[in-house]
């Protein structure tokens, strides 16, 4: 859903996609309809990213990858870029593919290109829930710091953040493998105050959380029938709910473990 090259393409996938959407209130359901039916403009050169007559949306991506030097070195992105180059090289050498072919490449972070060996690693050293929180706080805060300029440019529009979330699914380890759908839903980040606390005192009117990698492995499929939402729309009134809490990162286990 969110693997296109440009932000505008990703945004249009969100607007036009037929995805399972979560909304707690009638107001949020109305907001979804308003967002998907609005006439949007690409504003990525000046920010916020996308504007309509009444709304403006800033988009950013988060993941759960353990990074180095405060996010400046992301092993997964480096591996993806390396894999992409290899695929492009292969296509150019073979030369039998359609010119409009779309490439989506995911690299293996365990592969060392210098030795051409795969080095075993523990999954939690690659991605974990604490890295998820850390990455989110670092990236989200940068956009929160720009709120004043967004408001100055468009003072009468409601402002939302669209979060493209590439993190894997996490559940409390004590509840796996026998977990319920309810357990899974309340383990999503918009119920975790570690994430939502940044918005509570902010001037952000709504948050759209778009999940790109949340899978539950049920009955042999790859999450197609898990009924977890692909997209959640959360208005300011629901940043905290009765189910919100600070989740202990040490107790959260990736389903890729």
Summarize the structure.
The protein has 257 residues and is α/β, with parallel strands linked by helices. It contains eight helices and eleven strands.
Question: Can you walk through the features of this model?
Answer:
This protein has 257 residues and is an alpha/beta fold. The chain is 32% helix and 17% strand. The chain contains 8 helices and 11 strands. The protein has helices spanning 7-16, 26-37, 75-94, 123-126, 129-144, 147-153, 181-185, 193-200, and strands spanning 21-23, 41-42, 50-51, 55-62, 111-112, 117-118, 158-165, 170-172, 206-211, 231-235, 252-254. It has a 7-stranded mixed beta sheet with strand order 1-10-9-7-4-3-2, with helices on both faces. A two-stranded antiparallel ribbon has the order 5-6. A hairpin with a 3-residue loop joins strand 3 and strand 4. It is globular. It starts with 6 loop residues before the first helix and ends with a strand. Residues 220-224 have low confidence and may be disordered.
Task: Identify the notable features of this structure and list them briefly.
globular, seven-stranded mixed beta sheet, 11 strands, alpha/beta, 257 residues
């Amino acid at each position: 859903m969110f693997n296109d090259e440009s932000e505008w393409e990703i945004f249009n996938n969100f607007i036009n996609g037929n995805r399972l959407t979560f909304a707690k209130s009638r107001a949020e359901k109305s907001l979804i309809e308003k967002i998907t039916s609005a006439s949007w403009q690409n504003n990525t050169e000046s920010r916020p990213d996308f504007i309509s007559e009444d709304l403006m949306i800033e988009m950013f991506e988060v993941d759960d990858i353990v990074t180095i030097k405060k996010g400046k070195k992301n092993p997964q992105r480096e591996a993806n870029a390396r894999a992409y180059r290899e695929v492009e090289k292969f296509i150019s050498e073979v030369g039998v593919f359609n010119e409009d072919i779309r490439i989506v490449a995911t690299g293996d972070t365990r592969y060392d290109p210098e030795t051409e060996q795969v080095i075993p690693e523990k999954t939690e050293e690659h991605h974990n829930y604490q890295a998820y929180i850390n990455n989110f706080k670092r990236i989200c805060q940068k956009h929160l710091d720009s709120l004043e300029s967004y408001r100055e440019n468009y003072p009468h529009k409601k402002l939302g953040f669209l979060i493209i979330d590439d993190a894997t699914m996490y559940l409390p380890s004590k509840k796996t493998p026998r977990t319920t759908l309810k357990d899974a839903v309340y383990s999503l980040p918009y119920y975790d105050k570690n994430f939502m606390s940044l918005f509570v005192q902010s001037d952000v009117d709504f948050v759209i959380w778009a999940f790109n990698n949340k899978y539950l492995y049920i009955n042999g499929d790859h999450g197609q029938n898990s009924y977890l939402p692909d997209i959640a729309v959360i208005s300011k009134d629901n940043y905290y709910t009765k189910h919100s809490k600070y989740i202990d990162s040490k107790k959260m286990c990736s389903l890729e473990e």
